[in-house]
Specification:
This protein has 128 residues and is mainly alpha-helical. The chain is 55% helix and 0% strand. The protein contains five helices and no strands.
Amino acid sequence: MATSVCATGFKGGLCTSSFHGSWRTSTAGEDYAALARSVRTNVRVGKPVRLMPMMRNVNEGKGLFAPIVVITRQIIGKKTFNQLRGKAIALHSQVITEFCKSIGADAKQRQGLIRLAKKNGEKLGFLA
């Protein structure tokens, strides 16, 4: 079946068409099989570009003590402030450790208390 039909319905030479045959032969025939073989089944995709996550406090600028912390950091400088904050956190962790020793809590419970103290510090604004 090699009939060429154009949109106006005339057979022959008024229109040129590349369609020869029926719909069934064009989708299920040899052309479809050759097309299916030529399509790659595995497509290689490059790695997505990921931005480095910012280590920031979710509650930054919020909390009861956040304004005091921000003003203190501006007055004494960021480096000195971070050193002071580190010493305060270390001292607080020692207090928690001594408390856990006195009540007989194990290391897992102690670690949980330290994490809880950090979360509370974030909520109150100490880590702003």
